[in-house]
């Protein structure tokens, strides 16, 4: 049996509904419209409050509006594509789906859904299953709450807060990936931070041992890191480092400037690099010399350990008149005459 033709009042209501909805679409989706906001559109004749409520109710019935109560009555619009997804849902399914929809990219815990809807466990699970079957929602994992059953709209990707961003793989912190990238960044910054001067140095002789011969293919050259002049402006900036990682084959993961900045913060906290005022961005990054020469300094020693006393295994027994003394130490005399140690 055919539906009766719409009355003149219904036709008028439909026209007003469309006009109000079209004007709402000009605003941001987060906008909350109050009664006066809709009256100010100049669509409702004579600012008729009863007619206004009839129009907004039709928009709510067609899922184009959702009601908002934050002290006073208001409405937010839904895009038509989203409104169509609500049509055909049962009351329970709509309650569950609206909460998941509002949670956006953060997702929502199943326990939170149960508490807010006050649905019986079986009804809630039935609604969730139906929504998953319709491919309106999907479950998700959160690195913040790995044991919780979370849900999100199937058309959305979880936020970086939920997934951990580029630094997590299968919800586990990828320490090897982070360490590898920070190492690459440090090498790049280091290469732009100092002038390297190469010079020959004699092999040192360890007391009581023959002077070692250089291994085949080895070099006795020593590399000295010299500071660059104050006018130097070649230190890499965040933008340059981001572009370097993006264009390199190191990783196929897309990393933003914020991601690279987080890695640079790690290097700063480890005292391997520091910020300097330079470049068009005003801030650039420079390697800390101690971070580069630290291991080399341990091998080379210092003023104390280069002297025989600094490495003497019987230092505690050394005293004048004792079994070992500086005046009778052959290694000490050789060191004083430049023989090395």
Descriptive overview:
With 341 residues, the chain is α+β, with helices and mostly antiparallel strands. The chain folds into 4 domains: 8-83, Arc Repressor Mutant, subunit A (Orthogonal Bundle); 88-163, Orthogonal Bundle (Arc Repressor Mutant, subunit A), CATH 1.10.10; 173-299, Arc Repressor Mutant, subunit A (Orthogonal Bundle); 306-336, no CATH class. Helices cover 42% and strands 13% of the residues. It is built from 14 helices and 11 strands. The chain has helices at residues 8-24, 35-39, 49-61, 80-86, 91-102, 110-117, 121-133, 160-163, 175-191, 238-247, 257-269, 289-300, 308-311, 330-336, and strands spanning 65-69, 73-77, 108-109, 137-140, 150-153, 168-169, 172-173, 195-200, 221-226, 273-276, 284-287. It has a 3-stranded antiparallel beta sheet with strand order 3-5-4. A two-stranded antiparallel ribbon has the order 1-2. A two-stranded antiparallel ribbon has the order 6-7. A hairpin with a 3-residue loop joins strand 1 and strand 2. Helix 1 (8-24) packs across helix 3, helix 5 packs across helix 7 and helix 9 crosses helix 11. The longest helix is centred in the N-terminal third of the chain and has 17 residues, at 8-24. It is elongated, with a radius of gyration of 36 Å. The model has no long low-confidence stretch (mean pLDDT 81).
């Amino acid at each position: 049996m055919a539906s009766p033709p719409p009355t003149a009042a219904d036709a008028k209501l439909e026209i007003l509904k469309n006009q109000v909805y079209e004007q709402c679409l000009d605003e941001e989706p987060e906008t909350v419209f109050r009664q006066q906001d809709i009256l100010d559109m100049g669509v409702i004749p004579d600012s008729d409050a009863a007619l206004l409520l009839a129009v907004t109710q039709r928009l709510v019935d067609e899922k184009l509006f959702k009601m908002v109560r934050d002290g006073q009555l208001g409405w937010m619009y839904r895009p038509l594509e989203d409104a169509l997804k609500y049509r055909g849902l049962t009351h329970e399914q709509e309650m569950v789906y609206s909460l998941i929809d509002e949670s956006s990219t953060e997702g929502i815990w199943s326990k939170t859904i149960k508490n807010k809807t006050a649905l019986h466990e079986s009804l809630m699970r039935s609604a969730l299953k139906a929504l998953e079957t319709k491919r309106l929602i999907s479950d998700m994992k959160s690195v913040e709450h790995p044991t919780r059953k979370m849900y999100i709209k199937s058309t959305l990707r979880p936020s970086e807060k939920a997934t951990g961003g580029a630094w997590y793989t299968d919800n586990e912190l990828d320490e090897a990936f982070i360490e590898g990238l920070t190492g690459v960044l440090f090498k790049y910054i280091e290469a732009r931070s100092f002038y390297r001067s190469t010079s020959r140095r004699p092999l040192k002789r360890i007391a009581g041992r023959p002077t070692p011969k250089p291994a085949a293919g080895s070099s006795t050259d020593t590399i000295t890191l010299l500071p660059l002049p104050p006018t130097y402006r070649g230190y890499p900036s965040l933008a340059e480092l981001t572009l370097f990682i993006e264009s390199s084959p190191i990783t196929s993961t897309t990393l933003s400037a914020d991601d690279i900045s987080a890695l640079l913060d790690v290097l700063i906290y480890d005292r391997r690099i520091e910020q300097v005022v330079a470049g068009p961005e005003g801030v650039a990054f420079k390697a800390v010399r101690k971070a580069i020469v630290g291991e080399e300094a341990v091998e080379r020693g210092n003023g104390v350990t280069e002297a025989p006393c600094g490495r003497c295994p019987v230092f505690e027994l050394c005293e004048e008149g004792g079994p070992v003394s500086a005046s009778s130490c052959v290694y000490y005399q050789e060191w004083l005459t430049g023989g090395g140690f």
